Amino acid sequence: MTDDNQPSPLSIHDMTVAYQRRPVLWDVDYEAPSGKLVAIIGPNGAGKSTLIKAALGLVPRASGEIAFFGKPYHEMRSRIGYVPQRTSVDWDFPIDALGVVAMGLYRKIGWFQPVSRKYRQQALAALERVGLAEFASRQISQLSGGQQQRVFLARALVQNADLYLMDEPFAGVDAATERAIVELLRELRSAGKTALVVHHDLQTVAEYFDEVLLLNMRRIASGPVEQVFTAENLRRTYGGKLALLDQVGHRMSGK
């Protein structure tokens, strides 16, 4: 439960995930706070993306209970927006940017139904929020990597969800797209939304996020950035294998 006694946007209890009998996540417990921007941090292979996919049922769990706002995912699906890794998407699929964004409205439109003017306007407004309205009719394969990422952000935004799960939205994007993503995250927080974001840049965690979930197969620590994002917790998470670990930890610990 969250501090205001309302169900957590995402509650994970005793979740284990294994690929070919090799554990990727082990006995993970986590309660996401409401109305916060949360960075999911950990080394490569720590299970960060798997955590999101397993919570959404995109990969099977060996064990564990998942609740979204206190209920199963299938009951809360309309309140959840998902932004996958850009590298996991088939960008050669013949569809334009507006069509991709409209996919976020299919639960309202109905599958295989024509997109009415009302929903086209909503999709276009979402593209405008990410600065891509002029590219609405552009094939997604013709967009840059940063533009493609913003299209998928717009698809999630048009759902008007309460919880957003984003899998490395900052990976491989240009500076303009990074600024646009940060601004959108802050807008979501101002609107009372929650976002869990798989993130890899330790140097921007304190600037971009309110809370952090440190993960390395297990939950190492979680909570407000100023309390949890410390040199000791980073060493526990990364095992001292990160070149910038001492520099980042030194700054965050205020020493």
Q: How would you describe this structure in keywords?
A:
11 helices; alpha/beta; 6-stranded mixed beta sheet; 3-stranded antiparallel beta sheet; 255 residues
Q: Overall mean pLDDT score?
A: 87
- Gyration radius from CA atoms, angstroms: 18 Å
How do the strands line up in the largest sheet? 5-6-7-3-8-9
Low-confidence stretches: none
Distance between the termini: 34 Å
Q: Could you tell me the number of beta strands?
A: 9
Q: Specify the overall morphology.
A: globular
Please bin the fraction of helical residues. 25-40%
Structural class: alpha/beta
Strand content: 15-25%
How would you characterize this protein structure?
This protein is α/β, with parallel strands linked by helices and 255 residues long. The chain has eleven helices and nine strands. The protein has helices at 48-55, 73-76, 97-102, 106-109, 117-129, 145-157, 175-190, 205-208, 225-228, 231-238, 245-252; strands at residues 11-19, 22-31, 37-41, 63-67, 80-83, 163-167, 194-198, 211-216, 218-224. The strands form two sheets. The protein has a six-stranded mixed beta sheet, sandwiched between helices. β1 (11-19) and β2 form a beta hairpin. α5 crosses α6 (145-157) and α6 (145-157) runs parallel beside α7. The longest helix is centred in the last third of the chain and has 16 residues, at 175-190. It is globular. The chain starts with 10 loop residues before the first strand and ends with a helix.
Write the layout of secondary structure elements.
Elements: E1 11-19, E2 22-31, E3 37-41, H1 48-55, E4 63-67, H2 73-76, E5 80-83, H3 97-102, H4 106-109, H5 117-129, H6 145-157, E6 163-167, H7 175-190, E7 194-198, H8 205-208, E8 211-216, E9 218-224, H9 225-228, H10 231-238, H11 245-252
Parallel strand pairs: 3-7, 3-8, 5-6, 6-7
Antiparallel strand pairs: 1-2, 1-4, 8-9
Helix pairs in contact: 5-6, 6-7, 10-11
